[in-house]
Amino acid sequence: MADMLPPRDPDRRLKARGAASQPAGRFEPHTRIRESDGWDIPEDEHLLRTEVTEERPRSIITRNTSPDVPFDRSINPYRGCEHGCIYCYARPSHSYLNLSPGLDFETRLIAKPDAARLLERELARPSYKPAPIALGTNTDPYQPIEATYEIMPQILRVLRDWNHPVTLVTRGRLVLRDLDLWAELAAKGQAMVGISVTTLDADLARSLEPRAPAPETRLRMIRELARAGIPVRVMVAPVIPVLTEPEIERILAAARDAGATTATMIPLRLPHEVAPLFRDWLDRHRPGMATHVMNRVQAMRGGRDNDPRFGHRFRGEGIEAELAMKRFRLARKRLGYHEGSPALDCSRFGPPPRAGDQMSLF
After folding, report:
1. Greater confidence, 24 or 219?
2. Domain limits at 127?
3. Hey, how many other C-beta atoms are within 10 angstroms of the C-beta on 45?
4. For a 10 Å CB count at each end of the chain, is N or C smaller?
5. What is the reported pTM?
6. Concatenated DSSP letters for 49-79?
7. How far is residue 135 from each of residues 31, 75, 154, 308, measured CA to CA in Å?
8. Is residue 148 included in any domain, yes or no?
9. Which of 2-16, 69-83, 142-156, 221-235 has the lowest mean pLDDT?
10. Angle formed by the axes of helices 248-258 and 318-334, to 10°?
């Protein structure tokens, strides 16, 4: 419940943040609650700013065996995400770092500047077998701090040089900075970009996803990527009952007009700490709809806030979920979207030529 969250710190001035509090992660033995001593001084308020630390991992490719996703490996250049989407299913991952899935997730970020070097080392292993690498499966690799760290173009150059296929999920406008690299990979049948569009309502987006690009910007991203010859998938996700569910058809139509060729849909997921954070957001931004929204969410999740079972977590169940999916499929067919994503080419994978290498005649 929302009342499980600690109260907002009155000394912190929050500007464009999704969460309003800093609840302890589920692995923490203690919860700290701030109590006013009656001596709060307005001049002591401070703006909560983003902090970034660096991580030097030993490997960069993460493997998974989930039956719910179409990839078995991924790369996430960052931990945490400054976009601050209140519903983000990745928020609980900050608990593993002894950080809060609330404000810490969107203000205390971790960058992996060695990602490209580690990637090349892993691709060079004799045992490595190519398959599409998914970027942005946990947190957005094109979030605002990417403008400073520029990790993504380094990764893309390695993948381009090794002729390695790659997919992307993002809502960050910085993807357009790397348009030439994505176009090079796409020209060889080795790239596809997914753009997440939650709503076309700019005001709703501003509170749901405070530091993510506006809906019109995301449609422009789709348009420019498509013009560059890059296959684009629109991701109508997450679909939030009452709030964004009525927009399914409009989002699909707008994205198709912009040039998207495939589409997917995922209903709202509220794992672990995300549920109380989202309930708190509803109480702050849509109090009159809060009960209705959560009743509809639970109708798709077996009476709970979340259903983590494989085969159910990305689809939901019951009449609510079935009707939403039927609407999505009918609109997708009517608008001429392709049924599936194009297969990416793994056949050219190999080390890039080095200076002095004998070139092949054919």
Report:
1. 219
2. 51-334
3. 12
4. C
5. 0.90
6. --EEEE---S--PEE---TTSS-SEEE-SEE
7. 34, 5, 13, 22
8. yes
9. 2-16
10. 30
The answer to whether the CB of 85 falls within 8 A of the CB of 266 is no
Q: Which of 21-30, 311-320, 330-339 has the highest mean pLDDT?
A: 330-339
Alpha-carbon distance 300 to 312, whole Å? 10
Per-residue tokens: 240: 């939030």
6 by Cβ neighbours in 10 Å (0-12 / 13-18 / 19+) ranks as middle
Q: For residues 102 and 32, what is the distance between their CA atoms, to the nearest angstrom?
A: 14
What six digits make up the tokens of 346? 């793994």
The Cα–Cα gap between 325 and 245 comes to: 10
Residue 2 is assigned to a structural domain of this protein:
no
Measured CA to CA, the distance from residue 354 to residue 14 in angstroms comes to: 51
Q: Has residue 345 been placed in a domain? A: no
Q: Helix (H, G, I), strand (E, B), or coil: what is residue 221? A: helix
Q: Which two tokens stand for residue 111?
A: 């960058």
Indicate left, alpha or beta for 356 from its phi (over 0: left) and psi (-120 to 50: alpha): left
Tokens of 83: 């976009």
Instruction: Report the domain count for the chain.
Output: 1
Whether 148 and 305 have beta carbons less than 8 Å apart is answered as no
Closest by alpha carbon to 263, among 202, 210, 332, 311? 332
Structure-block tokens of residue 209: 């996803």
